[in-house]
Structures are given as structure tokens and as C-alpha cells.
Specification:
This protein has about 160 residues and is of the alpha+beta class. The protein has five helices and seven strands, in the order E-E-E-E-H-H-H-E-H-E-H-E. The strands form two sheets. The protein has a five-stranded mixed beta sheet. It has a two-stranded antiparallel sheet with strand order 2-3. Strand 2 and strand 3 form a beta hairpin. Helix 1 runs parallel beside helix 3 and helix 3 runs parallel beside helix 4. It is globular. The two termini are about 15 Å apart. Bound molecules: magnesium ion (MG). The site of magnesium ion has 5 residues, from strand 1 and helix 1.
Amino acid sequence: MIRTGIGYDVHRLVPERPLILAGVRIPHTSGLLGHSDADVLTHAIIDALLGAAALGDIGAHFPDDDERYRDARSLVLLEEVSSLLRARGFAVVNVDATVVLERPRLRPHINQMRLNLARTLSITLDQVSVKATTSEGVGFVGREEGAAAYAVCSLQRMVADP
Ligand code: MG
């Protein structure tokens, strides 16, 4: 059986924070604010994966008032979700995501993001798609107040429910 999930996340852009997307540190004058490393792309993907398995959301698994997750690398959280899915008999079929960010242009970093995600999920590069778009100057992304990410994924259940 194939199951589909959707994820969405937003983080605020502020000075003097690193800009990290799918574990790639991207040179920029501002970065995303959050309890963890605020990797908005990885957070959207985590919610898509959890959603496809009907296992709740990122806030339920990694509460933002839990000191264990302060400045946590989101790829580590993704790895935990990957293990959880595997334990429940799910295999990731594919992930597709879009980052919405006004600046900087992300194209030079897209392949490294895909590599990081594929490696963390123990899947192949062709199972991971990352796209980037701007907001054409409109709204909170256009004003460079924040970034958003959308993700969908499909899972295949490899074993019957325990
Ligand atoms: Mg988040």
C-alpha cells in the first residue's frame, strides 16, 4: 500500500543566525530563527513523512521546549524519523519539496541538499527532489522576513501492522 504525506513549515529570518537548509550551511547575511537549527526544509520533510505514516507531527516528537533539541541538527531529527518509519515497516518511495526564499539563490546548493537528505533517509538521490522558488517580492518571504517550505512524500508499507 502506498501512503502520501504533506508537510509545511515557516521560520523567521534574522541577522546573526546561520542559514541551514537540508543540513547545508548557505552563506548569507541572515539565517533562520528557531529552537533547533531551524532547518525549515528538513522540518517540512519530517512532517510529510510523519503525516504519511499517521504518526503525528514534528512538535509531538521533538517539542520546542525540550532542551535536548536546542540547536539540534535537524538532519539528526530526520534520521530518528527514518528509523521510526523503518521500525513500523515503512519504506520511503520518494520525497519532493519546495523551499520558498527570496535570497540568496539556492540552485548551487540543491544537489548537496538532495545528497544529505538521501543519505539520511538511506534512499537514492533519484528518490529525493528539492526545488527552490522566490516569492517575487510578495508577502513575508518577499520582504525577507522568513522562509517557507512545502514537502510531500510517499511511503510503502513493507510489512503488515504488528
Ligand atoms: Mg520548524
